[in-house]
């Protein structure tokens, strides 16, 4: 791989030889400078953040020594040093280096960690083992202004990681292994801290374009992944409504603000949406999982549900319906949206209907549910291959290929038909893949 | 100007939090009632605040009927003839006198509750003294349980660990050079 200096030398020599016009050479070098500067800026921010983390870790280590030979009042006064140091560095960033992203990001992270250090030092001095949850609540509440005063985003990583603590279930252990399990009853704090960071995310978005910079991509991945992983614990019922809402909502958000970004890494919400869609639907093709997923919130027992279950069930459903209406309207207006994502909510509602018809025992329509889902995933995979081929997007083609092969492997292991028939069927499948290879060969080996 | 005002308000808020914790703790330690509790200890580690000795007490206490696992309540402290206190009853209603602590009921069995109380379970100690302190506590406690105890201060349902004693001397004094 050629570095920028070598590339510049090559361009200059090409210009001297008359291969490259002067104007083109200048434009290329300007482009190279811009991209180098952007990556260089990112390098500076990351270096500063790592530096701030290590300094803070050092401070925590010094605190851990426990200077208990000092009188209590001296230790009490010393407890303020970390937070005052943090405030001072933050002051420098705000008023002396306000245009430096690395200063703002590193000082915000440093201040956030120093607030925690000061509280830890006081609780050590006064022998307070305390409630760790309360400590986190105070700490994170004091961190929220940092998102808005200087608009720091790097702290979101630690902030959301700590907020996710309120989703961790309780596992009890006895002498003979796990003894009890209960979900975290403080999950609403997760919602509160997540909602508190969303306006910051919105502010960072470049609303006038469908292309975003590193900050919004970073926040997109962070918020998208944290909410996706946290959703089963943060939501108390209607999981399938919420999953479908995530698929449609993330996709629409990504399409609106991130569609101009080139790689799938630069389109966090679309990438997550496509991944969840594939993952959820593949799950629904498994006959052991199907009744579990659709039967998890049996609407015939709605009378016994708690208020929070009712709230999450209907809010998830309304959210899904709202986002589906939005997607359908955009599609009708001619916006290019993946039809498999737009249709997914309808499929889910249909599968729900089939599930409840099955429960009535009049008819067995389970086969229809599986068949529909299988064809849907199959169509989705083929669509990926066709679109990828049309737009010369190899990654998208990989995605389509992955969906198809994954579906086929799952079917290989759970298909309950005669072995000879199954053998013939999968030989056919193998030949279809070779056919795909043949049809793509021309365009890639040119 | 506006930005400076926001910054100053935020900085004040940040400083006020440790100040409030110190003020609250000092108030309990100054004005709270003192109780002696029998204990035993060992030596784990806290990633944020360094080494500590976990202090175990007899957390089984009689309780009013109707308590379930995870409920919150108030535990009453009662002094016996030897001068030591024990947890005498877990109640739902806040007692009228001041010798009680807010607690959480971990388990209920046979009209008894196993409770959890904040802020008296860890004794933070210098990293160089922690291992010796644990050994000392264990050796003494094995021979005579009344020779090791902790004093706590209790005020309006809150409590703070005041000191850990071995043979009526503060634990830290055993390691003074």
Task: Explain how this protein is built.
The complex is a heterodimer of chains A (446) and B (177). With 446 residues, chain A is an all-alpha fold. Helices cover 74% and strands 2% of the residues of chain A. Chain A contains 17 helices and 2 strands. Chain A has helices spanning 4-16, 22-65, 72-78, 80-95, 101-125, 132-149, 156-163, 187-204, 214-234, 239-257, 268-284, 289-295, 307-332, 339-359, 366-390, 394-414, 419-444; strands at residues 170-174, 177-182. In chain A, helix 6 packs antiparallel against helix 7 (156-163) and helix 15 runs antiparallel to helix 16. The longest helix of chain A is centred in the first third of the chain and has 44 residues, at 22-65. Chain B has one domain (32-175). The mean pLDDT of chain B is 87. In chain B, a hairpin with a 2-residue loop joins strand 11 (148-155) and strand 12 (158-166). Helix content of chain B is 25%, strand content 41%. Chain B is α+β, with helices and mostly antiparallel strands and 177 residues long. Chain B starts with a helix and ends in a 7-residue tail after the last strand. At the A-B interface, helix 2, helix 4, helix 5 and helix 6 of A face helix 1, strand 4 and strand 10 of B.
């Amino acid at each position: 791989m050629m570095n920028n200096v070598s590339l510049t030398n090559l361009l200059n020599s090409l210009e001297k030889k008359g291969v490259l016009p002067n104007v083109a050479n200048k434009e290329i070098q300007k482009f190279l400078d811009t991209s180098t500067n952007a990556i260089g800026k990112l390098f500076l921010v990351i270096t500063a953040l790592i530096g701030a983390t290590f300094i803070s870790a050092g401070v925590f280590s010094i605190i851990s020594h426990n200077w208990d030979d000092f009188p209590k009042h001296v230790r009490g006064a010393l407890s303020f040093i970390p937070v005052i140091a943090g405030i001072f560095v933050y002051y420098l960033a705000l008023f002396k280096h306000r245009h430096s992203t690395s200063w703002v990001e590193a000082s915000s992270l440093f201040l956030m960690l120093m607030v925690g250090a000061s509280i830890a030092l006081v609780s050590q001095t006064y022998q307070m083992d305390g409630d760790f949850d309360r400590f986190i609540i105070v700490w994170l509440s004091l961190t929220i202004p940092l998102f808005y005063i200087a608009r720091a985003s790097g702290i979101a990583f630690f902030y959301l990681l700590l907020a996710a603590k309120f989703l961790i279930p309780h596992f009890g252990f006895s002498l003979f292994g796990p003894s009890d399990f209960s979900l975290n009853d403080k999950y609403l704090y997760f919602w509160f801290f997540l909602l508190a960071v969303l306006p910051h995310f919105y502010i960072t978005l470049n609303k006038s374009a469908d292309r975003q910079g590193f900050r919004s991509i970073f926040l997109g991945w962070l918020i998208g992944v944290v909410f996706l992983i946290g959703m089963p614990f943060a939501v108390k019922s209607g999981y399938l409504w919420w999953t479908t809402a995530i698929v449609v909502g993330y996709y629409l958000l990504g399409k609106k603000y991130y569609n101009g970004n080139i790689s799938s890494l630069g389109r966090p919400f679309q990438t997550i949406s496509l991944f969840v869609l594939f993952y959820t639907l593949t799950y629904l093709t498994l006959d052991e999982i199907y009744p579990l997923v659709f039967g998890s919130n049996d609407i015939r027992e709605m009378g016994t549900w708690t208020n929070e279950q009712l709230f999450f069930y209907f809010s998830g459903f309304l959210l899904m319906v709202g986002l589906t209406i939005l997607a359908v309207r955009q599609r009708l207006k001619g916006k290019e949206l993946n039809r498999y994502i737009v249709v997914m909510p309808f499929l889910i509602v249909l599968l729900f209907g089939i599930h409840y018809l099955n429960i009535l025992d009049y008819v067995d329509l389970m086969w229809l549910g599986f068949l529909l889902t299988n064809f849907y995933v199959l169509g989705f995979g083929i669509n990926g291959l066709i679109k990828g081929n049309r737009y010369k997007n190899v990654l998208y083609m990989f995605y389509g290929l992955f969906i198809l092969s994954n579906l086929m492997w799952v079917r290989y292991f759970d298909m309950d038909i005669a072995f000879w028939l199954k053998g013939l069927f999968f030989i056919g499948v193998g030949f279809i893949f070779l056919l795909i290879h043949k049809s793509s060969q021309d365009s890639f080996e040119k | 100007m506006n930005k400076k005002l926001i910054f100053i308000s935020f900085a004040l808020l940040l400083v006020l939090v440790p100040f409030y914790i110190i003020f609250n703790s000092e108030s309990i330690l100054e004005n709270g009632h003192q109780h002696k509790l029998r204990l035993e200890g060992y030596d784990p580690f806290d990633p944020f605040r360094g080494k500590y000795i976990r202090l175990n007490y007899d957390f089984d206490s009689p309780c009013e009927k109707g308590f379930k696992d995870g409920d919150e309540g108030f535990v009453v402290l009662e002094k016996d003839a030897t001068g030591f206190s024990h947890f005498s009853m877990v109640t739902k209603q806040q007692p009228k006198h001041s010798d009680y602590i807010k607690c959480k009921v971990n388990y209920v069995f046979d009209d008894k509750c196993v409770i959890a109380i904040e802020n008296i379970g860890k004794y933070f100690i210098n990293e160089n003294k922690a291992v010796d302190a644990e050994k000392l506590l264990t050796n003494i406690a094995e021979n005579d349980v009344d020779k090791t105890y902790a004093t706590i201060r209790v005020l309006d349902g809150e409590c703070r660990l005041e000191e850990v004693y071995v043979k009526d001397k503060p634990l830290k004094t055993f390691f003074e050079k």
